[in-house]
Amino acid sequence: MKTITILGSTGSIGTQALDVAALYPQRFRVHAISAGRNIKLLAEQARRFKPKKVAIANPDLYNGLKTELAGINTEIMAGDESILELASLDNNDVVLNSLVGFAGLGPTLAVLRSGKRLALANKESLVAGGHLAMPLATDSNAEIIPVDSEHSAIFQCLQGQDNSALDQIILTASGGPFFGRSSDQLVAVRPEDALKHPNWQMGAKITIDSATMMNKGLEVIEAYWLFGLSYDKIKVVVHRESIIHSLIEYKDGAVLAQLGAPDMRVPIQYSLTYPERLQGLAPRVNWEQLAELHFNRPDVDAFPCLQLAYQAGRVGGSMPAVMNAANEVAVELFLAGVVGFLDIPRIIDAVMNKHKVVKSPGLEELVAIDATSREMARKCAVTKG
Ligand SMILES: NC(=O)c1ccc[n+]([C@@H]2O[C@H](COP(=O)([O-])OP(=O)(O)OC[C@H]3O[C@@H](n4cnc5c(N)ncnc54)[C@H](OP(=O)(O)O)[C@@H]3O)[C@@H](O)[C@H]2O)c1
Questions:
Q1: Whose Cα sits closest to atom 21 in ligand 1?
Q2: Binding site membership of 103 for ligand 1 (Cβ less than 6 Å)
Q3: Residue pLDDT, tens place only, 189-223
Q4: How far, in Å, from the CA of 11 to the mean position of ligand 1?
Q5: Do the bridges between strand 166-173 and strand 244-250 make them parallel or antiparallel, or are there none, so unpaired?
Q6: Which residue, 235, 214, 222, 293, is CA-closest to 260?
Q7: 14 CA to middle of ligand 1, Å?
Q8: For ligand 1, is residue 200 a contact (CB within 6 Å)?
Q9: For 222-243, how does the pLDDT look when each residue is reduced to its tens digit (9 = 90+)?
Q10: Cβ distance 260 to 287 under 8 Å?
């Protein structure tokens, strides 16, 4: 029996993780769950899974959650500190960090400090604070099992291999809803167009990141921290079908890949059961009917976010956190209809250009840098050109 805590249980990854947990009640005890604001769904999940602790990040919603959970025997907590507390509970075996954005960094570090298994969906925490997270994981002997389908694929391919002979990683990208369009054809795209992902059902922020290809940029930086190759050895190829989840190439020329239907319940389940594999919920690929798989070079002119991420990753220090903060604000403003789709890379580029890099910022410094970068992004959003 594994005791699991799910941070962000009301989101796309969190709800799918609960589907997996529900499949194996004799193996997984859901000990604690959390949400940002959605008290209705959080309460419904608490009634169903009977966790010992339930936390809501927004402290103003504490009383509302208490009312929703009247008569339920669970400890109710609120505020950002409560999420950190759930991340570091003594009896956690696995903590799934499925929070979205920079808010996931503190909890990632808290899980790693506790020496437990971190099932990591929140890529932004490694993007902004990989230099803090990776040494912490080593020092406290904590496991990081990636949940992102690409990183899970790479992690799976690496099992049992001579990884000193790893030559390069090839991350696959679906290309998103606007694959094949030129930048002129992207000027007028609306949030509702960008929210229609061809292969995956995901939260709004990552869906927009997929449309701009920033998602792949964030994943390049995530791969850098998880697998320890230089940026020159981390490539991206567009693969429209999302059947190959990523590839690795060894020095002898052998290429290994992990394939399967595009269904996040596979990497989520693997992060919880690793190294075991159990019967899963995902549909199977019909190999007889799968006529073709396609591969294309990413169009970095139409989708400059990917290059901005390589640039930020290579500069290192505080720059990836700055890029991440600017992106979070730009996506939020795009979704609110305040800026256009092409303003997203413009804002990120402008904020990165104004930043004076800090070499190895600690958590407090990163939090301050994140805040000033967000402020800067809001300013850049209104001053075009
Ligand atoms: N969705 C996917 O298929 C997928 C695939 C690969 C990687 N990922 C990564 O997984 C992470 C989660 O993505 P998602 O699509 O599941 O996002 P999502 O659907 O937006 O869910 C985010 C979760 O975090 C909670 N949350 C949001 N802001 C918070 C805050 N400031 N403090 C505490 N909790 C907060 C949300 O609560 P409320 O519901 O109350 O807002 C929700 O439970 C992201 O880093 C994403 O890049 C997702």
A1: 11
A2: yes
A3: 999 999 998 887 899 999 999 999 999 999 999 99
A4: 5
A5: antiparallel
A6: 293
A7: 7
A8: yes
A9: 999 999 999 999 999 999 999 9
A10: no
Ligand 1 centroid, distance to 98 Cα (angstroms): 5
Q: Which domains does the chain have, with CATH numbers?
A: 2-147 (3.40.50.720), 148-263+282-312 (no CATH), 316-385 (1.10.1740.10)
> If you measure from the C-alpha of residue 164 to the centroid of ligand 1, how many angstroms do you get, rounded to a whole number?
34
- By C-alpha distance, which of 91, 89, 140, 99 is closest to 119? 99
State which H helix or E strand residue 188 sits in. none
Q: Where are the alpha helices (DSSP H) in the chain?
A: 12-23, 39-49, 62-68, 80-87, 105-114, 123-140, 149-158, 191-194, 204-212, 214-227, 265-273, 305-315, 319-335, 343-354, 363-382
Instruction: Decide whether any atom of ligand 1 lies within 6 Å of the 146 Cβ.
Output: no
User: What angle is formed at CA 94 by the lines to CA 118 and CA 361, rounded to 5 degrees?
Assistant: 25
Tokens, residue 204: 């709004």
Burial of 64 (0-12, 13-18, 19+ CB in 10 A): middle
